[in-house]
User: What shape does this take?
Amino acid sequence: MFESSRFEILVATLISLLFLILVFLPMEKVFPAKRNQKTFRPNWLLDLCFFLGQYLFWGALVYGILNYYGNNLSILIPDSFQTLIKKQSFILQGIEVLFLSDLLIYWGHRLQHKVDFLWRFHKVHHSAEHLDWLAAHREHPIDSIYTIGLINLPAFLLGFPLESIAGVIAFRGIWAIYIHSNVRLPIGFLRIFIGSPELHHWHHDIDRRAGNYANISPLMDIIFGTYICPDTEPEKFGIKEESPKTYLGQLIEPLLPRRIWIKIKGRL
Assistant: This one.
């Protein structure tokens, strides 16, 4: 049974990889944000390790933890209110979850860039010096628990089972990959309502507090004064701090005091 399950996960991972390649690679070739960026750009193998780790292992662990706490959090809301929520149409439920999660993720994401403890895990994601669909997967597991937890917190509190909003979760996942992709598709005035790669690329500017913390819609950034969208791409992505160049190093470094990391980093 266990071997069969692992095989199914492996097959699903390979299908997902093929799907993302077929969807995003042509877009990056036809509408490139950085025209000279190659498909096999520097550190693509490191980001592939993050992709495989996320799909083969960390993803199931993260959602297992969230599902456990979600079941416990739902008891905080009266059954009568949960019943009222569940009687709503799926479309209305989805809109509510998207709005509430966007509000939470804006402030949670902003804190990730301001609070040093949160930044030590989030900087793994920002250490990518080249953005494309694959770089979107560079994320520390603890950072994933924090981010995905915030995104799904409204559903937990309101009593939505994760299965009922699977479509919303899948949409957010694809959207996250899209806004990291090496794509530039200007949408004119609509960009103040709908997020896009051109906005999120500026969030990945080497300046840690560049702005654009929102996810689906930039309205929160506009309201709270953190919106930025020049007509050009940032000159440089990444972080100012020194960052490990290996997958294991990226996972371990945020967990350790700096003095201990300095002693062992040469071995990883």
Q: What stands out?
A: The CA atoms of residues 101 and 151 lie 5 Å apart. The chain has one domain: 2-33+42-267. The two ends are 34 Å apart (CA to CA). The longest helix spans residues 44-73.
